[in-house]
Specification:
alpha+beta; four-stranded antiparallel beta sheet
């Protein structure tokens, strides 16, 4: 198994009209934070994984934690692709500055 750092990017749009939907939204967001995801923007979270096997394991957990209503989308990319992203407005978040594409990451 080759260690090729990957990023999981989770994008979601969840309904929050009823109290139950609000609870599901809050629980999903808490799951993401507890599972090591960092917020990039509202409803967009990212997590670093050491290889594709770890990505598969996290995708399974993410699928189980996703609320039944709404939309949850996932993209997996290499850490190099993530670090090459262009920022058109704003600036890099604290989490993005912590890890550069050449930096060794210990998980």
């Amino acid at each position: 198994m080759v260690n090729r750092f990957m990023r999981i990017i989770v994008m979601f749009d969840l309904p929050i009209k009823s109290e139950k939907e609000k609870r599901e939204y809050i629980n999903f967001r808490k799951f993401l934070l507890r599972d090591g995801y960092d917020m990039l923007q509202f409803s967009i979270y990212s997590r670093l994984c050491p290889n594709s096997d770890a990505v598969d394991a996290h995708l399974d957990r993410l699928k189980k934690a996703s609320p039944p209503k709404g939309a949850v989308r996932v993209i997996t990319i290499t850490n190099k692709q993530f670090s090459d992203a262009k920022i058109l407005t704003g600036k890099r978040s604290y989490q993005e500055k912590k890890i550069k594409k050449e930096q060794l990451v210990l998980l």
